[in-house]
User: What shape does this take?
Amino acid sequence: MKLVVVESPAKAKTIEKYLGGGHRVLASYGHVRDLPPKDGSVDPEHGFDMQWQVSPDRSKQLKIITDEAKKADALILATDPDREGEAISWHVQEVLRQKKALPASVQRVTFNAITNSAVTEAMRNPRELDEDLIDAYRARRALDYLVGFTLSPILWRKLPGAKSAGRVQSVALRLIVDREREIEVFKTQEYWQISATFEADGQPFTGRLVQLDGKKIDRLSIGSKAEADAAKATVEAGRFTVSSVETKPFGKNPPPPFTTSTLQQEAARKLGFAASHTMRVAQSLYEDGLITYMRTDGVDMAEEAISAARKAIANRYDSGFVPDKPRRYTSKAKNAQEAHEAIRPTDFSRSHAASGDHARLYELIYNRALASQMASARLERTTVELTDGAGRAVLRATGQVVLFPGFMALYDEGRDDPQDEEGARMPALREGDAPAKTGVEATQHFTQPPPRYSEASLVKRLEELGIGRPSTYASILQTLKDREYVRVEKARFIPEESGRLVTAFLERFFERYVSYDYTAELEEELDDVSGGRLNWQKLLEEFWQDFRPKAGEVMEQKPSEVTAALDEFLAPWLYPQREDGSDPRVCPACGNGRLSLRGGKFGAFVACSNYPECRYTQKFGQPGGDQASEGPQDLGNGIELKSGRFGPYLEREGKRASIPKDVPVADVDAEMAEKLLSLPREIGPHPETGNPITASIGRYGPYLAHDGKYARLNSTAEVFETGMNAAVAKLADAASGGGRQRGASREPIAVLGAHPTSGKEIKVMSGRYGPYVTDGTTHATLPKTADPKSVLLEQAVELIDAKAAKGPSKKPARRKKAK
Assistant: This one.
């Protein structure tokens, strides 16, 4: 008997079906060991020795694997074909070796797709574990551990409110913060554009003013309404004829099939998927045998896949859409060992799959892969210049015509930010023609700052800088959200106050380690390790001999010294120049105190040096703005805004009310404070029972209440706006199962798929005591650190199976109190 180990139970079930008798296929459920989160797990003094610990939630599965290994003649490690997959195989091998359960024969096989042919072919060509990839994994884990467990304690002690820092996450956060700084210092500039509409042969087109009285008109040339009106009058008075026509044919080649990063970018642009969701859905498609492995830097496809794609193109379109020769794409990945085939469908005769998000992502992957082998598009760009009779004004009109769509008939790559359209249709014009002018417009515009990063543009920027690797981007972005260093509004990243402060601290005291160039160089060195060109312990030694002294130096500084240094570093942002030229550090309340950065129990803030005589304070995230502080803030009517252990709250004559999470503290004025302190709000008597319906905010958010029954509200605003009709409907819906009582929701957070054994559908739900996974029979609470939207099927299966194995919980019988 041969024991085959893979990551997930879904993958195990499929592969066991392909291999047949004589094979036992078991899942490891991902990594089985990790570094314990405590000091000493990596020992720099002894060759960076690592103390690995079996994950508690993997013990049961490891025992099953160990028992089977003792009976097996051979062990086949068939985990994913990348660095992490190699590491999982290595961990399984080492655990079995320690338990003296390792079979005499150990083989490593990899396949790029879970299909019968791919798995069978892989089994015919086994190899040994790749020690270079394992060393690269160990180097990365050690680096991340050393950075995290060295920086985080410094942050906790020196920087109020900071949580932790990571090697790559901190650099990604700096990108977001740097972009925000660019936006804040951006000076908006007014400009005007003059355009005229024409018509020829029934076809309208538009020309823009590009020259006036012999001077070239650029985008910012006309900066005021007066100038615009004068230019508009000149264009209105002119009679224009075509002075030149230039036509240029050009071709457009299809983009290559997806890599991990381009899939994440395009799924964000076209489907609105977060990177973590894209990878979760792609993982499911891969395990179902529908696509090839989704963690890859490669851009080319296997020969049989190219042939199948060309055949599918010929079946769908005419022969002109199939290029004479197959297209070949070259990967930009610097480490060939980690570059695999591009992401593509395993069967090009299947253009649709599954349903919902799975179908949408599959279609995106299918269309991109098929388009990559289609003919180039042929287009023609036309530029027409029109000059008035007096020679004062020149207008330019541009347009393009698609002569042959080629791959564009199926797929066109998205863009991160809107761009000017170049596809306007143009009539056939010749020199000397005088098209009819139908109107002239002067439109006002303002220059715009660079846009905040979206998931797509941030992933693209990280890849351009060589920071991180595509397989890590989803977890990097999720970590920034989980630590609440950033928030996402309208699909764009905005740094929170805590994120700005951590970035400022790292830039001031650990500038090298959050620099883009250094981080990219370190990634190249890690690639050298996986390519066998650099020893992993040498890389760690060179890093540690510089990093450790720097960390010790910062740890020795007093918190007040750190705060003073940050106050100076952040001065241009915290104390912007005032319009009247006065000193921006002078306290606006007392007029003679000096403002400076302080560190408090609940975070950083700016305060007056005359405290406690002057109680003026300023939130860290609002330079030059609102008063909000650790000390009470008087809102009027006897109401004070205070900071407590669990966040900001309101108080008046002993009565308190917390500030809801969806209400910005800066928006809490006397009117809002009165409303919050007056809760619960009575909406009126229920038309059937006559008993009151109330709206309020509780531990689990806003809700309606009536006769001991509850219904959830979606926002704080609804607490004050919901009327009788809506309240009765919501309560009825909740009572009939359409809603839940406070703290719960009937709608699943995510549907993960079928249980590999029972076939029951597994969902992630929101419960009164937090999110949980369920198969309809067994409910298992998620760990507090888990993101309910990023739970994988295999994780859910393991939690449910572990809960089912324990059986129903039994409360101990109450003991009678002795008399």
Summary: The first strand starts at residue 2 and ends at 6.
